[in-house]
Amino acid sequence: MSAGVTLHEALKAYEELAEQGVTMRVVDLYSVKPLDSQTLHEAADATGFVVTIEDHYPEGGIGEAVASALSDHPIPVFKLAVSHRPRSGDPEVLRTDEGISAKAIVGSVSNLVRALQPSYR
Question: The pTM is what?
């Protein structure tokens, strides 16, 4: 679940993960109010866990909104978000440093799939 610039990173990660045989969904969460909780629940049911990706701090962001909407679901919600002090720089370098670039998303999702679904190769 992502929006804005991180949606494009998630779509790049989707392509790479698909080549590795990892099936996933990318949800464009362009609005947190109203939040499309039906789509969130459908995605959660289909995947078993949710990863949110946002290019700002996690507090009050997409991850918290998704976790709240799925609080009635027994699935984990993992949040990839900015954790360092803001600074200027090349956007790709900054996304990589924050763990929200396509490559970082691939690594995080691959690790989660291995940890949560032991049959993953």
Answer: 0.87
CB neighbourhood size of 48 (10 A) = 13
The helix/strand/coil state of 36 is coil
Largest Cα–Cα separation, the chain: 42
10 Cβ contact list (under 8 Å, min separation 6)? 2, 26, 53, 102, 105
121 part of a folded domain: no
The answer to whether residue 80 is domain-embedded is yes
What would the pLDDT profile of 42-99 be if each residue is shown by its tens digit? 999 988 899 999 998 999 889 999 999 999 988 999 999 999 888 888 888 999 999 9
Question: How many independent structural domains does the chain possess?
Answer: 1
Which residues constitute the domain of residue 58? 5-116
